[in-house]
Structure formats: structure tokens, C-alpha cells
Amino acid sequence: MTHRPGLDPAVAEVRRAVRAALAPLEAGSTVVVALSGGADSLALAAATAFEARKAGVTAAAVTVDHGLQEGSRDAATAAAAHARALGLEARIVTVDVGSDGGPEAAARAARYAALRGEASALRAVAVLTAHTLDDQAETVLLGLARGSGAASLQGMAPQTELAEGTVLLRPLLGVRRATTRAACAAEGLEPWDDPHNDDPAYARVRVRRRVLPMLEDELGPGIAEALARTAEQLREDSEAFAEMIDETIEDIVEHAEAGISVSVPALAANPAALRHRIIRHVVASEFGQSLTRTQTIEVARLVTDWTGQGPIDLPGCIARRVGVRLEFAAR
């Protein structure tokens, strides 16, 4: 009797994660895998190729060539060849990267615009990216360092809306980077190592190479998992707050001339955390702007500590106290 070797544990873990992400999709659907050629995305592509066939889902790989370094076209071509060998349709999209927000943000914006375009062309219901638990930990730590509040500490969600009719799925948020590399090795896949991932000019690279290892050395193992758990718990809290805001806001908000107004007594009756979230939510939904914590607290003082102070200039609008109403008006 011939002994049949068991499935490599790393391959099995990645496949399980992808299987769970694809489970809600209808048979006959199409998904796109964002494939850079690195170990994370290559392991994702291999698992998606296997699990999509079982689920009756069509999968295609899209590689975005940012053109930011010598040899990027060769790397994109190699990634596409891997995808075809796995049985996936492969597409390469070349993009122009701008400068808004710095090189990382600009490259990310160009990449997601390309993925949206390809998803639309393929009528894909989902785009899968290969963000891992390690990426999540780095995101949370960077958000903590920037002091940008609970929103950034929530990290990346397993599912977000990418475009109308298309969701962005991150199946590997519970999978370690070492596991994706082990899965590639087990399947004989040779990943491409992006030189930018070792460039200490980028804050994320410094966190990855220096900060997280130092924390592990000083505080013990499990830091990345703890940061990822923190992100998950904060997302749960945020979702609960969002439901509370949706329920509350219908009763306390009215349209006003050139803007919107909120009941001061109702705001005052709520805890500070909910009051601040309502203020930020009103400004974001009505004027498409985000408030800093300092700006939010200053607006809240019109509710809790009003001594007749005048209007407050905010991004895209002005906040002022008018009797028992807090009004937000366009500039």
C-alpha cells in the first residue's frame, strides 16, 4: 500500500483561510487576486486557485506594475507566469504613481485604482489581498505611534467595500508571514522579494525590522498576535458605536440652512465618547471631512462648556451654537 503524504500544515492553514473567505460567494462568481509576486500574495494566489475551483468560483490574478524600480516589469511578468502555472488568468496593469501623500500612499492609491478597474472589467464580486497578521500588527503599531485614535488602531478589516458591487477581502489577516513563506516553499513557488520591503526609509519597514523584534525581545513573544487582537476588539467596539450613532442620530439631527444641526441637550446627555463620534460623523457625512481630536473637543465645548464663544472654523464647515442647537454650516 502506497503511503500518501499529508498536506503541508502551512499550505493547509492558508487554504482554510481562503476557503472561509470564499464561502459566502455564489458559485459562478468571479474574484480577483492582487498578486505582487511576494510570498504573501503568491501563497494567496495558490490557495485561491485551489479553493476557487472547489467552490465553483472563477479567479483571476492582477499584478500591478508601479514602475518605481528597475526590474519591476520583469517581476510583474514572473508573477503573472506563476499565476498562469497555477491555472489562473493573469493580467498585468502598469500604473503611473503620483506624489500625493508621499510615495507609499501614492503607490497604494494607484494600485487600488487599478484593482478597481480590473475588477470592474471582469465583473468580479471581490478582490483578495494578501495582508497578513504581521501587516495588521505593523498597521496598529504605526497608528498608535501617530496618536491617530481608535479608527487607526482598528487596523485593516477582513472585508471592506472596494467599489459598488465589489468587496475587498483580506483572508490572511489571521495568518503569519512566516506561514505564507513556508507555504510557498512547500508548493515549490519561488517568491519575489521587493527591495522596498527592506528599505529603512519607510516607517513600516523600520517597524517590521527593528521595532517589533525589539518588543518581542523585551516583552516576550506574542506581540504581533496581541496587536492584531487589539485591532479586532476595537473594530467590534466601533461597529457597536456605529449602530448606536445610527439609532441616535435620526432623533437629534435636523437639516439647517446651508448645513445640519444637532440637539445640544441630546449631545450633552450622551457619554463623551459617543458625543465625539456623533460630531465627527456629522462632519464626515455632511461635508466629507475628518476632524482631529483637538477639533472635535473644541466643538464639544460648545455643548458642555459654552460661555458664548463664537463659531469654530473646521475643515469644510463652520460649527456654532445657536440656542439649543449645534449648527454645522458650509463655508
TrEMBL record:
Compartments (UniProt record): Cytoplasm
One Gene Ontology MF term: tRNA(Ile)-lysidine synthase activity
tRNA(Ile)-lysidine synthase substrate-binding domain location: 263-322
tRNA(Ile)-lysidine/2-thiocytidine synthase N-terminal domain segment(s): 31-209
Catalytic activity, as annotated: cytidine(34) in tRNA(Ile2) + L-lysine + ATP = lysidine(34) in tRNA(Ile2) + AMP + diphosphate + H(+)
Domain of life: Bacteria
Binding, ATP: S36, G37, G38, A39, D40, S41
Keywords from the named record: ATP-binding, Cytoplasm, Ligase, Nucleotide-binding, tRNA processing
Short name of one Pfam family: ATP_bind_3
EC number from the UniProt entry: 6.3.4.19
Entry note about domains: The N-terminal region contains the highly conserved SGGXDS motif, predicted to be a P-loop motif involved in ATP binding.
Its job: Ligates lysine onto the cytidine present at position 34 of the AUA codon-specific tRNA(Ile) that contains the anticodon CAU, in an ATP-dependent manner. Cytidine is converted to lysidine, thus changing the amino acid specificity of the tRNA from methionine to isoleucine.
The protein's name: tRNA(Ile)-lysidine synthase
